[in-house]
Design a protein that fits this description.
- The protein has 425 residues and is of the alpha/beta class.
- It has two domains: 156 residues, Lyase, Ornithine Decarboxylase, Chain A, domain 1 (Beta Barrel); 251 residues, Alpha-Beta Barrel (TIM Barrel).
- It has twelve helices and 21 strands.
- The strands form three sheets. Strands 4, 14, 15, 16, 17, 18, 19, 20 and 21 form a nine-stranded mixed β-sheet that branches. It has an eight-stranded parallel barrel with strand order 5-6-7-8-9-11-12-13, surrounded by four helices. A three-stranded antiparallel β-sheet has the order 1-2-3.
- The radius of gyration is 23 Å and the shape is globular.
- Bound molecules: pyridoxal-5'-phosphate (PLP) and lysine.
- Lysine binds next to helix 11.
- Homodimer.
Length: 425
């Protein structure tokens, strides 16, 4: 869903003019649209939760994409489940009103404390990523006199055809249990105390723009389901992870309906199996922008630089994955000539850019919007260069809610202490 509208030369999110947000909350600043998050969620829920479906399908929002409490609250109120990867993310979901039973817990290195916390909160299931983790969950659950519901996260060895840093389902990746070992690990899980097998899980990567890798992974997972069945292990659901891509520039990922219907069609032969999904990016990426202001323009004789007040510490994706985010003027600027140059931040790194080779009509003081910044934006931000993290604002119709205040310097160095002074002798 396109959330940004131009009204008389000024960009709006829902009914709010973006310059008003910048004026009130300063820049840089993340701005999210509640309506867009809701619509993106509904695209999933309409496919999975309709009158024709009786299977208890679940959509578990991948919290790592955007863990702002208000974002989680909006989704919890819509009935979302949550895919988490840390004890901290479990705590956030609970704080935002999410149901423990709707939480699935992924991650390759869950600590004792995290496992204990998840069991205490009685979360829906652990997505177990190794034999060693399975043994540890069994020990802890047994000692706590409880049972952990588990799925094994299996690595289906499918090429997701995405950036290598965000492909997770290849043999070489650290994620999941190799498919050829899955039966043995399930058989072990079946006899371990404190363990209840409920499903199987995979996640092959992020920002997938083709349907084919999802369907290839599904085939491999269903072959595993058959093998398990032959060996007396019956699953209740199959979790196909997240990964559906979005349009940053001209990508044409499958529509949510097409993606889900293709999987449901294949699952018709398995009426007892519910489908779980873990979308992150598809729910929030295009529901948010990063607002930033131009500080200076510089021309070094052969190249233009547009220096803005947001850097790689605020939005890491361009530096880390050479990701392309469209960058646009918030107010039409007709009085200035266009320049082509790199949009760079204040951080002392050559890789600190938000966009390269962009053509914009800009002057110092102009407001820019970095689009599609709602996923893996704020959640990947840092305090590098002692830069306070930006504010986050949720737009809801004509209202703007500050849902996270910009950090102060005290926030940035909280917990640090000085050592007693040493005097020179
Ligand atoms: C286990 C797991 N589930 C879900 C997701 C969400 O992925 P996406 O944001 O691409 O939907 C990820 C991130 O790649 C993940 O690692
Ligand atoms: N952080 C990545 C997505 C990775 C998802 C984690 N498995 C991105 O910004 O595209």
């Amino acid at each position: 869903m396109s959330i940004i509208k131009e009204v008389k030369g000024v960009l709006h999110l829902e009914e709010v003019a973006l310059p008003a947000v910048a004026e009130k909350f300063a820049t840089p600043c993340y701005v999210y649209s509640r309506a867009a998050i809701t619509a993106n969620w509904q695209a999933f829920s309409e496919q999975l939760f309709n009158e024709n479906s009786e299977a208890p399908h679940k959509v578990c929002f991948a919290v790592k994409a955007n863990s702002n409490l208000a974002v989680l609250q909006v989704l919890a109120e819509l009935g979302a489940g949550f895919d988490v990867v840390s004890g901290g993310e479990i705590a956030r979901v609970l704080r935002a009103g999410g149901e423990p039973a709707n939480i699935v817990f992924s991650g390759v290195a869950k600590s004792d404390a995290e496992i204990r916390y998840a069991l205490t909160q009685d979360i829906g299931q652990f997505n177990v990523e190794s034999d060693a983790e399975l043994e540890r969950i069994s020990e802890i659950a047994s000692a706590m006199n409880t049972t952990a519901r588990i799925s094994l996260r299996v690595n289906p060895d499918v090429d997701a055809k995405t950036h290598p840093y965000i492909a997770t389902g290849l043999e070489d990746n650290k994620f999941g249990i190799p498919m050829q070992n899955a039966l043995t690990t399930y058989q072990r899980a079946a006899v371990l105390p404190g363990i209840e097998i409920v499903g199987a899980d995979c996640h092959i990567g992020s920002q997938l723009t083709e349907l084919e890798p999802f369907l290839a992974a599904l085939e491999r997972m269903l072959a595993l389901v058959d093998t398990l069945e032959e060996n007396g292990i019956t699953l209740r659901h199959i979790d196909m992870g997240g990964g559906l891509g979005v349009t940053y520039t001209d990508e044409q990922p499958p529509q949510v309906a097409e993606y889900i219907q293709a999987m449901l069609k294949r699952l018709q032969d398995y009426p007892h199996l519910a489908l779980y999904l873990e979308p992150g990016r598809a729910i929030v990426a295009n529901a948010g922008v990063l607002l930033t202001r131009v500080e200076y323009l510089k021309f070094n004789g052969h190249k233009h630089f547009i220096m803005v007040d947001a850097g790689m510490n605020d939005l890491l994706r361009p530096a880390l994955y050479q990701a392309h985010h469209n960058i646009v003027n918030v107010e039409t600027n007709s009085s200035t000539a266009a320049i082509t140059g790199d949009v760079v931040g204040p951080v002392c790194e050559t890789g600190d850019f938000l966009g390269q080779n962009r053509t914009l009509k800009v002057r110092s003081g102009d407001l820019l919007a970095v689009k599609s910044a709602g996923a893996y934006g704020f959640t990947m931000s840092s305090n590098y260069n002692t830069r306070p993290k930006p504010a986050e604002v949720m737009i809801d119709g004509a209202q703007m809610h500050l849902v996270r205040a910009r950090e102060t310097l005290e926030d940035v160095w909280r917990g640090e202490t000085l050592i007693p002074s040493t005097s020179l002798k």
